[in-house]
Amino acid sequence: MTRDDAPIEAATPRAVARSCIDAGVEAAHPATVVEDAVSLTEDGLEIDGAVYDLASYDDVLVLGGGNAAGKVAAALESILGDRLTGGVVVTDVPEPLSTIDVVTGSHPTPNERGVAGAERVLAHATGATADTLVLGVITGGGSALLPAPAGDVTLADLQTVTDDLLGTGATIHEINAVRKHLSAIKGGRLAAAAAPATVVGLLLSDVVGDDLDVIASGPLVPDSSTYADALDVIDRYDVTLPPRAERHLERGTEGDLAETPTPDADAFARVETHVLANGLTALRAAADTAADHGYTPLVLSSRVRGEAHEAAKTHVGIAEEIRATGTPLDPPAVVLSGGETTVTLSTGSGAGGPNQEFALSAAIELDADGIVVGSVDTDGIDGASDAAGAIIDAKTVDGTTKEARAALASNEAAPFLEAADALVETGPTGTNVNDLRVLVVDDTEATN
């Protein structure tokens, strides 16, 4: 319901699904969350209740990277004005700024511009002193956008490792354990470079559980993984490493290279972090929007993970139960979930990411009218595709079940969903709090 307990004008279930998606993305947008959490007061810069006395610092820098880094940097520049000295952020959604340099990198596979930008971020951090306040902008996508190859490892090596791991179905925790140990900036190394500066991390989390050392591979926090853990991931998923990357990890396990900083390292003596938004931020806003449309919302979980096509089956089963029996709540209802599902590539090219696989699998399973399923990546880019995800119903696969199953089996969800006019295309949104799934269960026979 709305704040005055009156539902807004009735909309179709498909329109409700899109409205919930849009509301979730908007709620997690940096302009929204930074305005809510950061302000200038008489006492200094207030961030999420903590106050930093700007008079105590000669310089105030903004450093970091990720899908939302440009938008966060823009909001900080607006708030700080001439109190801001400078900085560098790397993002794939550039923002024209006057004091902070914005470098355009690439996501999900790193590129040369990302390497150059990460090197500039490190250089600024290394030049910081005890009289510097570093505002560390760390958001989803930072693992790719802040590559900084370590030692003899090259960008080409990182590109190969990234692409190969993304196709194995490995979790983001596992993938980032590898990326942290092939990078000079991840796994707490940015904080080590900035010491003895005061470092305040402003994070937008795209990680299930908000594990700080996994968000953007944890450049500002202690690392819980090791070189041995990284090699275990490589062995577990039978990935063939480029020779330089393999030798780098082996040297780490042999003790020839320093491990990533652990919690007792001096690098973290003056580091604090604040998570400004996460998956629940988007889910709560989507739930409010569902209520505004007259639907009873249920936030199922912000921590859904596993294979996308399997997770879809469970979600469809819950929606069908609501539709058939009113359990666990009566329709009209909207069931919401977030988190991060994965895709294990088989024979296809992977045209369409986890959210499109989720949607296509849901469309194949769904045999009840009155249900609409939407699934998107909140950054607007699902996998390596141009679509954020898709919205489907029981008619999406009508008469084409064989073709749909073949597309799912070969990881070619995007072409099928495009032909069915089911794709959701938002363009890069400027934020990233991972997946957002919306199941609209109507109490009438019509779904459109």
Automatic annotation (TrEMBL):
Residue span(s) of domain MOFRL: 334-435
MOFRL-associated domain ranges (all copies):
17-250
Kindly list the GO CC terms recorded for this protein: cytoplasm
GO MF entries: glycerate kinase activity
Keyword check for Oxidoreductase: no
- Supply the alphabetized keyword list: Pyruvate
Identify the PANTHER family for this entry.
GLYCERATE KINASE (PTHR12227:SF0)
Write the protein's name: Hydroxypyruvate reductase
